[in-house]
DNA sequence: TTTCATTTATAATCTATGTTATGTAACTAC
DNA sequence: GTAGTTACATAACATAGATTATAAATGAAA
């Protein structure tokens, strides 16, 4: 639990938003000055539930989270995985009733920011509001890309695509490099995200390993053959809408 | 082709946005005063293409549109169907490169509104901007719901769910009532939206008819057994985030 | 070090849905 | 009114991935 003047927690937010936009110093400062309350949560713990009407949103500072909805007979669909810098329930700012649940994958440190403060920020700095809007639009673009996978790609292509996506998301905020990244979700989680059974996820993982494309051990993914992976999964990063920056 | 002072074209936009929000007279007037250029398009015509960087967005005045992306070997994933009042490419206001294509299903009348005018509107009336943002968030909520269907529901449940959703969307803007609505897409389109082959879509339609749940003829859908349909498809309209209005 | 729970691995069997093929009905365009 | 085109319907066969079952690793807890 930290005080409202804790600036460090929002640097991860600035870093994330700067992967899809640019800010002036004043805008950056306004984001860093947002009030927030930090908390550490256990793995597998719900943060906001389907049906809730939250009055704050949740910034991930460390660890992983995911969004899901449960159906009858134990079926579950996972919509997204989230990492440090993400605000996975930013949509609750304008959709007052949650239509799904947000939960932790790993132990996670999260900062809660009051909706009221977010609204004041977007009113005072409409250009920051536009970036937050943009962030929710990228979120939607990722949903569309997942729809393509679940609807029209093989299990092999789907899993390879997810791995490429997660690697690039982590790399874009400095949490991965050299085609190596953390990947803490279970095979059941991967299946529920991609519309597959855990058994079939396991089969495909063996296949990916057998072909020498990846290593996946102790929650660490290494992609050995990036080009083959993006080709096999028809991966094109356009949909992530990263801000283009001069290389260097 | 109409002049910039054509107010009637924006009344369908106001009607649509009032299905998910409320406006003051001044806000309503500001929306009606947006400049636009109207055009009539043939069925199956692309409006904005994957890779384009449009400087306007497209308001549907009449007819149906849909969004899709094509993969290799003729595979196609449809992301959404759109009706009068929708701005299917509103996301292009903040995502500058299209990551999919928008096209007409039927002959359609559309109004193009310059991004610049939309930006000015959101700057002058932040509350209107919030409603437009909200509209893109509902769009994303519908993507999530489709992911559930494609990932975790049977073909039967998916198709029934789509029919319930389209009926409610049309009803909410006064384009349907009595569980009867237009449904102009082909069985191939339905398959590409729900991750099914056209053959299987046909099988399931026969089954829906055989059980007396629906009639579907000449692009008109009638849902005879609403309760059974929503039960079979696990349909819960919360995700559409309609503005609650006092019944009357 | 043993216990308990979770995750991963693997095999055998089954099924929902895909694929291919063909015919018919409904529109469109002269 | 006929030709061409598109959409719908149906059958036979094929398969990707589901289901069920079991057990081996792994890791946390005591």
Quick summary:
The structure is a homodimer of 248-residue chains. Chain A is 41% helix and 20% strand.
Walk me through what this model shows.
Chains A, B: InterPro entries: cNMP-bd_dom, cNMP-bd_dom_sf, HTH_CRP, RmlC-like_jellyroll, WH-like_DNA-bd_sf, WH_DNA-bd_sf. Chains A, B: GO terms for molecular function: DNA binding. Chains A, B: Residues 153-227 form the HTH crp-type domain. Chains A, B: One of its GO terms (biological process) is regulation of DNA-templated transcription. Two copies of one chain form a homodimer. Chain A has 248 residues and is an alpha+beta fold. Chain A folds into two domains: 8-142, Sandwich (Jelly Rolls), CATH 2.60.120; 153-240, Winged helix-like DNA-binding domain superfamily/Winged helix DNA-binding domain (Arc Repressor Mutant, subunit A), CATH 1.10.10.10. In chain A, 41% of the residues lie in helices and 20% in strands. The first copy, chain A, is built from eight helices and ten strands. Chain A has helices spanning 8-17, 25-32, 115-124, 126-152, 155-172, 187-194, 198-210, 226-232; strands at 37-41, 46-48, 56-62, 65-70, 76-82, 101-104, 108-114, 180-182, 214-217, 220-223. In chain A, a hairpin with a 2-residue loop joins strand 9 (214-217) and strand 10. The termini of chain A are far apart. At the A-B interface, strand 5 and helix 4 of A face strand 5 and helix 4 of B. The structure holds a DNA duplex (30 and 30 nucleotides).
């Amino acid at each position: 639990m930290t005080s409202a003047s804790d600036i460090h927690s929002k640097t991860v937010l600035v870093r994330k938003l700067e992967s899809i936009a640019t800010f002036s110093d004043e805008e950056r400062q306004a984001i860093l000055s947002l009030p927030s309350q930090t908390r550490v949560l256990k793995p597998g713990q719900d943060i906001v539930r389907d049906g809730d009407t939250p009055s704050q949103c949740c910034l991930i500072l460390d660890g992983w989270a995911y969004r899901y909805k449960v159906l009858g007979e134990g079926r579950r669909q996972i919509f997204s995985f989230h990492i440090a810098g993400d605000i996975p329930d930013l949509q609750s700012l304008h959709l007052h009733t949650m239509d799904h649940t947000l939960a932790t994958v790993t132990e996670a440190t999260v900062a809660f920011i009051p909706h009221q403060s977010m609204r004041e920020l977007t009113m005072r700095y409409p250009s920051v509001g536009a970036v937050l809007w943009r962030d929710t639009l990228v979120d939607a673009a990722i949903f569309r890309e997942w729809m393509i996978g679940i609807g029209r790609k093989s299990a092999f292509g789907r899993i390879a695509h997810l791995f490429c996506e997660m690697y690039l998301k982590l790399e874009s905020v400095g949490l991965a490099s050299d085609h190596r990244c953390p990947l803490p979700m279970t095979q059941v989680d991967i299946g529920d995200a991609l519309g597959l059974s855990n058994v079939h996820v396991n089969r495909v993982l063996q296949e990916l390993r057998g072909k020498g494309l990846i290593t996946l051990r102790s929650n660490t993914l290494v992609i050995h053959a990036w080009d083959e992976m993006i080709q096999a999964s028809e991966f094109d990063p356009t949909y992530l809408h990263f801000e283009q920056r001069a290389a260097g």
